[in-house]
Design goal:
The structure is a homodimer of 425-residue chains. Chain A is an alpha/beta fold. Chain A folds into two domains: 154 residues, Alpha-Beta Complex (Aspartate Aminotransferase, domain 1), CATH 3.90.1150.10; 259 residues, Aspartate Aminotransferase, domain 2. Chain A is 38% helix and 16% strand. Chain A contains twelve helices and 15 strands. A seven-stranded mixed β-sheet of chain A has the order 4-10-9-8-7-5-6, with helices on both faces. A four-stranded mixed β-sheet of chain A has the order 1-2-3-13. In chain A, strands 11-12-15-14 form a four-stranded antiparallel β-sheet, covered by helices on one side. The radius of gyration of chain A is 21 Å and the shape is globular. Chains A and B meet through helix 1, strand 1, helix 2, helix 3 and strand 4 of A and helix 1, strand 1, helix 2, helix 3 and strand 4 of B.
């Protein structure tokens, strides 16, 4: 039995069936550095997928911050400590001024679980709206917003899904109509909640629509929906787990990129470069209402080590100019991706170090999901770790650590071109 | 403005009002070592409260494990890695053989959120039962099991609370009747769920009843309730966040101490000595049913660093004989606490390094909550960090790091005696 088969058997036995792995041939990783990962046989992979290792795998400054603080003190926020305060001030200084209060937790799921309840606390109502091809986390409440797997007993009656925007198949039939059409769907869901007696609490969305395949949308796209939500007295929650922390290059947050001012912002994965830390940032009256209603406390949330890890990530982003790197390398890679030719390429899109290629099998824009999955597997065989996403699984997802270089971009696109050249369309 | 006032003002501004601190005079901690903590003015405190720093604050072996793994690789379980498998095999080897599968997450709240849904996945039903003076975590679902703060919109209809056991005020009026009476309440709740159409999914409880004031209960106390739950086809979830990992001295798990075989076990706080790691352990068919129903994935859960931290904690418990230390020092401290005299002492109880004194103001067993709160504040002024719990807040809670020594126990009891001698009953 090979090493891989043995590990898979141990996983199945210990972690249960259905613990999915990436790729037809799962990867057994043992080491990481910057944008590279190595498997147990010494094979090197260019990591073009993992946003968790935001500033690069095993970044020495983040490791140092974790080690230094772990060796001194790790405790909870029922004692006073400067770590969480220094971090919170630094983080909120990077946001719209009214977003000035913060709750630190451990996972993006915990952050979204709080954000939704902030909607309840502010409105006294309980209707939630999410898009129909998304994922916001794994708690019982938050998984109700997920379209990946229908929860046992079905979706709660206080959750409604609205159609996701799409660049190749725009809502309302045209890119111009799409923003209005998206807002109309949200408005209709709000009206239904009012009719049904639930009332409307909050709309949650990723302003980059990463799980929806990050459609190409104009700045201001969310203006009509933000007006609809505001008029109804609900909250807009921006889930920045994917686009946040400078990834899109031109902006530090996905909400800035589209010109939205959300009421609540949640963040997770990239925040601690792999250390389990996440946060909710909101207007102070929202945080106060939530604390008053729920008396929330999180033992590990905002502990000195988590705060130190998160602070080091902000330090490295600034010291190494990683947002600017995302913009420059992203622009370069986008240009190279756009120059590729293949009959299945439907659209090349994205921003900064969050890029993708949507593959379609015909002029009717039929998603080429199997083709894309095979492509991603071929890339893995050729030493590049990427992913695929979108409703049809037909969008190649490139979302590497932020230290991804021009040379890394060349390696990725060269490999991709070679593989595409060998595929039959 | 003093340092403390400044920190409190920053907290209020940044983290929102109502972020509670411990003690009338909050403590500004800067350093920890073993069972001791130091504040910013260099004052030393004996930590008699924090079970998170299970093997001692800033334990070098745990710090080393975290640093070593962080410097090499930190990623998620969609790649293969030995860390989670080695840990899971080691952990489940310490449990009842049928409890052989594990899901790793980041917080006890996430663990309980899964455990409850395991109940749904196994039964197809959705009624949950918890005790009426408890806390199991902070997600939207799990906070429904909490009696501390009524959720907005009230408790869900699929949640019922049953009266907590108590040693001074036993259910049914006598210690002998209590086990039967507790089971009768659970049985009645199950019948009501069936009548109402929710059906019964799971009973969740801490087998040590820590938040209920850890009443003195005989081995076998939970046998009748376990039979009732089994007969109804539901699950018993044992929340080991407080009693687990050897704390009670005689047993590694609280469920073993009382002779219960649970279907699902959850753990959190002490598991990584402060690193955010938690887990659910269950019979394999339960884990399989949950995975099949929910397709759960947790990005940070079971990452190589979290697995290394958790493994180091098990190593240290064994290498330093901390379970045995808990038994020996606990027995010694219990004896010294029992020798104290004060008219308000209602009962001295607990096990291992989880001990308490229940204070009552009269023969009718009226809880002396204010008295106990003042006592805990006086202890803090005198350099001992303890807590208080129970329905009336009148149980002094002693739950120190597991390296607590005989000398530490003497310091604690001597200080307590001096303070008690100065109080008017």
């Amino acid at each position: 039995m090979s090493d891989i088969s043995k590990l898979l058997a141990r996983r199945e036995r210990l972690l249960g069936p259905g613990m999915t792995t990436f790729y037809r041939e799962p990867v057994h990783l043992v080491r990481g550095k910057g944008a590279y990962l190595w498997d147990a046989d010494g094979n090197r992979f260019l990591d073009a997928y993992n946003n968790v290792a935001h500033v690069g795998h095993a970044h020495p400054k983040v490791v140092e911050a974790i080690c230094a603080q772990s060796a001194v003190l790790n405790t909870h926020t029922r004692y006073l400590h400067e770590g969480i305060l220094d971090y919170g001030e630094r983080l909120t200084a990077k946001m719209t001024p009214e977003l000035s209060s913060m709750i630190m937790v451990c996972t993006g799921s915990e952050a979204n679980d709080i954000a939704l309840r902030m909607g309840q606390a502010m409105t006294g109502k309980c209707g939630f709206i999410a898009t129909d091809n998304t994922y916001h986390g794994n708690t019982a409440l938050v998984s109700q917003m997920s379209s990946r797997k229908k929860p046992i007993g079905g979706y709660s009656q206080n959750v409604k899904q609205v159609p996701s925007p799409d660049s190749l198949r725009p809502l309302g039939g045209s890119p111009l109509a799409q923003a209005r059409e998206f807002a109309r769907h949200v408005n209709r869901a709000i009206e239904m909640f009012e009719e049904e007696g639930f009332g409307f609490a909050a709309l949650i969305l990723d302003p980059f629509f990463a799980n929806e395949g990050f459609p190409d949308l104009p700045r201001g796209f969310l203006d009509p929906v933000a007006q609809v939500v505001k008029r109804a007295g609900g909250l807009v929650i921006a889930d920045e787990v994917q686009p946040g922390f400078g990834r899109t290059g031109g902006h530090f947050w996905g909400y800035e990129r589209v010109g939205l001012v959300p009421d609540v912002v949640t963040m997770g994965k990239p925040m601690g470069n792999g250390h389990p830390v996440a946060a909710v940032v909101a207007r102070p009256e929202i945080t106060a209402a939530f604390r008053g209603a729920f008396g929330y406390f999180n033992t590990f949330g905002g502990n000195p080590v988590s705060a130190a890890a998160a602070m080091a990530v902000l330090d490295v982003i600034e010291a190494e100019g990683l947002q600017e790197n995302a913009r420059k390398v992203g622009d370069y890679m986008l240009e190279r991706l756009q120059a590729m030719t293949h009959p299945f390429i439907g659209e090349v899109r994205g921003d900064g170090l969050f890029l993708g290629v949507e593959f379609v099998s015909d002029g009717a824009m039929t998603p080429a999901g199997d083709f894309t999955e095979n492509l991603v597997d071929e890339m893995r065989v050729n030493g590049i770790l990427a992913g695929h996403t979108g409703r049809g699984g037909n969008v190649l997802k490139i979302r590497p650590p932020m230290c991804f270089s021009r040379e890394d971009a060349d390696l990725l696109v060269d490999t991709l071109e070679t593989i595409l050249a060998g595929t039959c369309a």
